């Protein structure tokens, strides 16, 4: 499974949401998450400091080891980083360090950088039926030809907004705001 | 459910990813205080509401989050073209003539 | 006697698997593979229901989803039926039987054979076309009490289930290159052709088995194989193709814009003991690049007197029951036709062992080959012969014949028969083409409307566009499949399928059949389900209905569950005759979604119960629930409303919570407040433009209340804004307003002020917010704060600091108040919010404090006269109206809404202004929303001065208090006004809208 080194399954109770032979849904361990806003110049400087360049192509993701930069809009990226040590604690220190490093690198060039590590939670949906399960609530065409590995987009999961990232042929990551997670998990468990 | 193309994302998505923003190319006056009441009411409330092609603002609110403009036919709901905010409004009469052919 | 009408052999039923089911409580046997209709007919049961209006006995007419009469209530078992879990109005022709299935007839009482409601039939002169409009006109007062209850009791089919639906329903979004609707010969050929081109294909058919007419076409061969074997092979090929999705038992019920189609798949209704993990039905929401409609044609009834008697069926239905289900639906079967295909039905039934009493053809010269074949089978044939009526009430006994001549119709005697098959020819099934907004073209020589040019990316294939003959239909389907695949980017070649049999046939009839009966006494039905006769259609025309759309609504013809697929063409023909107008000028009514009825469960899919909406809970929610809190819904959020102790009611709990906050300290979950982080060098300028207040001079570490207007000058939201750095602000919004405020800000930022370098990020869920309010608030939090000086000088009211609590948990600490007491709001990461909350709670408890909910928060703020947007304001309220002119930055050249504040109507005298109200008796609690007037008992029609916006029992004031919006209210302070109520007016004194600590000294304590 390429690109999922970033996301480790959580080990807390209830982390396994769906466990069937053909599809699993698992809560992901916490990550540092930063919302980065700015123009291409700012993004270029930020990527160098972050360790994964910020993709300029729409719907593109750039995962590099324990980092990933996700294009969400023409001046908006979601930056993800894992601390490398397995744990259930949100890596505040990592988020703060990254903020400082990126802010220093971008300097006075206009930009915005906001820590959203705690705002989002992630689910890993994996298995031969992953796309079919997501398609019970997500209206996008998840055929690999239409939504290839590496594509990422904000979209709707029925009544919840999500960020959907295909990290492998049979693996997707769903990021949503934390209070929407029970709704998303509930519908996936019923799907 | 209509499909709408987002000029920022370069993809077509169902309309519920988008939010309608009313008629496009109605610029907020730079100095509202200079307008008399009638002129201000015109800006605030008066819209063209045509039967036919209309340039409208849309926002890809559940996608890239960006506003853009679209020319839509208000009778058939057909989207004729989309373009980014800040770009010039296409010639609606020329588009209507093309569409009629 | 069981299954007396079953043939000794043949058909596609599984004779090795008998199935027992009940109909109206009686046990019957059928075989696996039977529909409820075929199994009932096998047991010689034709009478299955009573009609909608006249309660006439009715039998099974068709073998498909267009069935107008055999509507039944069905449950998986008799127990479920008795328990109110039956699904009403299912078509027996579509219901597959399984062991234990329980079906009940509808629209009859006390029994199907003896129905009291049948008196309507005797009263039929009262129920002519438009009778609703004529009968229930006046007096007006009768509408609610007499007419509506009567109509509601008399109308409607079946009974709605009384219990909540225990089944589950699923949803699937799907995309394909080519969606093929209909799995008969044209649809299969199209699917094969498209799939061989490499296209992603979905093939859907409403029946349990794919194959359509090929499942009952005797003697037909395709590619040298019996047709049914070819179907099996075709399905094997399609099933092995991973890019093909086969959906049997799936109705394409809606065709919407841009090739968006809705399909209903019946997943488990046909199973006696389904896997409980499976949904009952699944909605498919399909976006197809191209669509092929292969929906076939529907045989048209003949309109002759008593054509609705049980035992009268469509000829093709008789053929289907004989060939596919091994059922001959009568001992002696008469055939009335104007069409070749009915002859083949007669031949097939005769060869299956049935007796054909007569073939009566309206045509003078049916094809000689058919007449010859009838002769060889010993079937009597009458030409130029009409069926002029039927004897027998609950079952056909004899069939009346009439000879058509230049002199009119003369009786030609009668024939003993217990079943009559009829055919007026075929109506191409153009419903989906019409739903897709495609126009229809009238083909006079075929007597049919055919699909015109499509509006969407779709094409019709086979008999739904008037193609006849198996070989031609297959070729047409293959062509359409390849054309669709090509248009979707998968070019290919149309395969050819050699076929024999399934010959084309001609002949058709439209409108009423002539007869020699007393026209005043007989009724020939056009629309069986809605009990519309030929006479009704003519009457509607006489009474001035000249458009088919008016005739439809006046007579209700075509408004049945089949949307007139059986009846429309005959009704149209009769109407056009009465109008003396050509059929295309009279027009056809529009076919609309759904194609056939869809259950509410399927439409709701998974959006029901706990998962209807996202239920947003804060990290403190579980704690509050453990404490016994009552919750209220605010937007999608659950918020703790109040925390009752012991046997406290809401009033007691709220009063205690309010007192405790003012006397010691309270802890409150404010997590749901919207939060936006506004960052960039132009952040302050952006806020200057968005809020009424000035921001440039707000120092880092300071908070300010912000008021936001829309461009029309009306208040749309408020909140507290903190400056974290020169270029960074932490903005809060109301709970319900968060998405709206962010959208409003993005709108201006992106489309009006794209020159500003500033960005907005929602941080609502990045921070949980613990509000600690009251004179002991500082004491409650001080032990937990790591690195922030809480002294009044270092951290005064309306300040913010970033720091840590509980040994390293990052926090943004606000000193602010929405209660009028000194207080703090601790913003902490949600993952640690519960731990911080419990630590604060321990201190609060030690200090004699309490947890309080939103209701106490509302009371506390009302005591201070703080507004709630949406409660004091309603979208027509300006800052001055609520006494908040102080929040307007007077020196700012512009902000959103500023220009509008100078509009004449917003500066006019007499606008409603916020004031306080105190009831004169000091006891009565006003109702929120109550009107306020000068007079105690104002005359009828008097305009109110305004209304009560907030009203609470105030523990601090020791009496009820209220806020109100009153015209010219500030000038009325000291006046006595009245709140008129049903029990008399309540006298109130107008006061300043502040009830506690008007100087605000407690805030800085």
Fold and architecture overview:
The complex is a heterotrimer of chains A (191), B (101) and C (1005). With 191 residues, chain A is α+β, with helices and mostly antiparallel strands. Chain A contains 4 helices and 11 strands; from the N terminus they run βββαβββαββαβββα. Chain A has a single domain (16-190), classed as Gyrase A, domain 2 (2-Layer Sandwich). Chain A has helices spanning 40-50, 92-106, 130-134, 181-190; strands at 16-20, 23-27, 32-38, 61-64, 67-73, 76-81, 111-115, 120-126, 152-157, 160-168, 171-177. In chain A, the strands form 2 sheets. A 6-stranded antiparallel β-sheet of chain A has the order 1-2-8-11-10-9. A 5-stranded antiparallel β-sheet of chain A has the order 4-5-6-3-7, with helices on one face. The longest helix of chain A has 15 residues, at 92-106. Chain A is globular, with a radius of gyration of 16 Å. Chain B has one domain (3-26, 41-97): 2-Layer Sandwich (Folate-binding fold). The two termini of chain B are 26 Å apart. Chain B has 2 helices and 6 strands; from the N terminus they run βββαβββα. With 101 residues, chain B is of the alpha+beta class. Chain C has 24 helices and 50 strands. In chain C, helix 8 runs parallel beside helix 9 (340-351) and helix 13 (534-542) crosses helix 15. In chain C, 56% of the residues are buried. Classes of the chains: A alpha+beta (191), B alpha+beta (101), C alpha+beta (1005).
Question: Nutshell version of this structure?
Answer:
With 191 residues, chain A is of the alpha+beta class.
Detail the topology: elements first, then pairings.
The complex is a heterotrimer of chains A (191), B (101) and C (1005).
Chain A: E1 16-20, E2 23-27, E3 32-38, H1 40-50, E4 61-64, E5 67-73, E6 76-81, H2 92-106, E7 111-115, E8 120-126, H3 130-134, E9 152-157, E10 160-168, E11 171-177, H4 181-190
Antiparallel strand pairs in A: 1-2, 2-8, 3-6, 3-7, 4-5, 5-6, 8-11, 9-10, 10-11
Helix pairs in contact in A: 1-2
Chain B: E1 3-6, E2 11-14, E3 19-23, H1 37-45, E4 53-59, E5 67-73, E6 79-84, H2 92-100
Chain C: E1 14-23, E2 26-32, H1 36-42, E3 47-50, E4 57-59, E5 71-75, H2 78-82, E6 87-91, E7 102-104, H3 119-122, H4 131-135, H5 142-154, E8 169-181, H6 185-196, E9 201-204, E10 221-222, E11 225-226, H7 227-239, E12 244-247, E13 250-256, E14 260-266, E15 281-293, E16 297-299, E17 312-314, H8 315-323, E18 333-337, H9 340-351, E19 356-361, H10 368-376, E20 381-382, E21 385-391, E22 398-405, E23 408-416, E24 419-423, E25 426-428, H11 431-435, E26 440-443, E27 448-451, E28 458-460, H12 470-487, E29 499-500, E30 525-527, E31 532-533, H13 534-542, H14 548-555, H15 568-579, H16 583-586, H17 600-604, H18 621-626, E32 630-634, E33 637-642, H19 650-663, E34 666-669, E35 674-679, H20 683-690, E36 703-709, E37 715-725, E38 728-733, H21 738-751, E39 759-762, E40 768-773, H22 777-781, E41 799-805, E42 809-815, E43 823-828, H23 830-846, E44 850-851, H24 854-864, E45 912-919, E46 931-932, E47 946-954, E48 959-967, E49 976-979, E50 986-991
Parallel strand pairs in C: 1-7, 8-9, 8-15, 9-12, 15-28, 17-24, 18-19, 18-24, 19-20, 34-44
Antiparallel strand pairs in C: 1-2, 3-4, 5-6, 5-7, 10-11, 10-29, 13-14, 14-15, 16-25, 21-22, 22-23, 26-27, 30-31, 32-33, 34-40, 35-38, 35-39, 36-37, 37-38, 40-43, 41-42, 42-43, 45-48, 45-50, 46-47, 47-48, 49-50
Helix pairs in contact in C: 6-7, 6-12, 8-9, 13-15, 19-24
